[in-house]
Amino acid sequence: MKTLAVETSCDETALAFFDSKKGILGNILLSQAEKHAPFGGVVPELSAREHTRNLIPLLDRLIKDSGVSPEEVNFVSFTLTPGLILSLVVGVSFAKAIAYTLKKPLVPVHHLEAHIYSAFMQEEPEYPFLALIISGGHTDLFLVESFSRYVFLGGTLDDAVGECYDKVARMIGLDYPGGPAIDRLAQKGRNLYSLPRPMVDSKDLNFSFSGLKTAVMHLLEKNPEAKPQDIAASFQSAVVETLLLKSLKAVELTGVKRFVVAGGVSANSHLRKVFRKEFLKRGIKLCIPPSHLSTDNALMVARAGMERFLKGITAPLDVNPLPNQPLQEFGKLWS
Ligand code: KG4
Ligand code: ZN
């Protein structure tokens, strides 16, 4: 089975061809980061206009580079929700037009589900497992009982962890997207400053990152001579330890010892090192996508779409994107 996948939920225009047996046939992505950088974050209207401009030339390039013809695909998979609504509208309309022209089915995918399945490009998932999704818009913990059966265990009460990375980066003079910039800078710094590990002592599995951001702001006010690389390393240690402690708590509360970490922040080099070491010590199986598939891409949409299509789940041609449908609801609706 072959699919063409479309991802436009935020500021990456991405397309991929994927085969259930042969795996990756083609993968292409155009990041708009440079266009949004002068504004310090993603500008929704600009993002939608860039998707409109880029999708067709990108499809042409994907076809040329992969040697795959769109007629060969069995279905078109696409991100239906969540995301910037204008950006989703562009990608969903594009996917529909292709499906209509080729007379092929449409398969809807939830962006967070796609992140989860980015960890299974090389292997089949073994259920149940826990999933921590850490991105620019989400910090969520789910129990995945089986395909499409998602139990929400906890999430952020305020900022998402990627958003916190981006805001702290701006405070220390780094460009958008701040996550990769902090990751690189922290490698030259030392964990010198004590910062809070928010909510690690609470009994639930929720997170809160806005206080940590404020703590960094106070730290900068009190220590104007502090080196940005030491701030970056101290901030990153606080984030990773918080995520780790909450993840271990989820394992303890559920007794489930298989764990996926996905979403843009899972590309973080310190996080990958710490999680691998601590999970190995405790005999917890950890699945993290390769770092180039941690951030938004279309292969993850293709991979999740393949699961849905093989279970016979398709969408009608009048399906409409939603800015923010919770994963657990999407899972029930499209099953
Ligand atoms: O999953 P993603 O590409 O888009 C959303 O679905 O939001 O995640 C983007 C987020 C941004 O906040 C970005 O700064 C962060 O992921 N990010 C990182 C790294 N690479 C991307 N954060 C920390 N370390 C990284 N290496
Ligand atoms: Zn994402």
Describe this structure in words.
By secondary structure, the chain is an alpha/beta fold. It contains twelve helices and ten strands. The protein has helices at residues 33-36, 44-66, 85-102, 111-117, 161-171, 178-186, 210-222, 228-254, 269-281, 291-294, 299-310, 327-333; strands at residues 2-7, 12-19, 23-31, 75-81, 106-110, 129-134, 139-146, 149-155, 258-262, 285-287. Strands 3-2-1-4-5 form a five-stranded mixed sheet, sandwiched between helices. A hairpin with a 4-residue loop joins strand 6 and strand 7 (139-146). Helix 6 (178-186) packs across helix 8 (228-254). The protein is globular. The model has no long low-confidence stretch (mean pLDDT 97). Residues 10, 135-137, 162, 165-166, 177-180, 183, 263-265, 267-268, 295-296 line the site of 5'-O-[(R)-(carboxyoxy)(hydroxy)phosphoryl]adenosine. Zinc ion is lined by residues 111, 115, 135, 263-264, 296.
Order of helices and strands: EEEHHEHEHEEEHHHHEHEHHH
How many structural domains are formed by the residues?
A: 2
Largest sheet: 5 strands, mixed
- Total of helices: 12
Distance between the termini: 19 Å
Unreliable stretches (pLDDT < 50, length at least 5) are none
Rg, Å, rounded: 20 Å
The spatial strand order of the largest sheet comes to 3-2-1-4-5
Small molecules held by this entry: 5'-O-[(R)-(carboxyoxy)(hydroxy)phosphoryl]adenosine, zinc ion
CATH superfamily of the largest domain: ATPase, nucleotide binding domain
Percentage of β-strand residues:
15-25%
CATH architecture term of the largest domain? 2-Layer Sandwich
Q: Helix proportion of residues, in percent?
A: 40-55%
**Under the CATH scheme, which class of the largest domain?**
Alpha Beta
Number of strands: 10
* Helix-strand category: alpha/beta
**CATH topological fold name of the largest domain:** Nucleotidyltransferase, domain 5
Silhouette? globular
Query: Mean pLDDT, as a whole number?
Result: 97
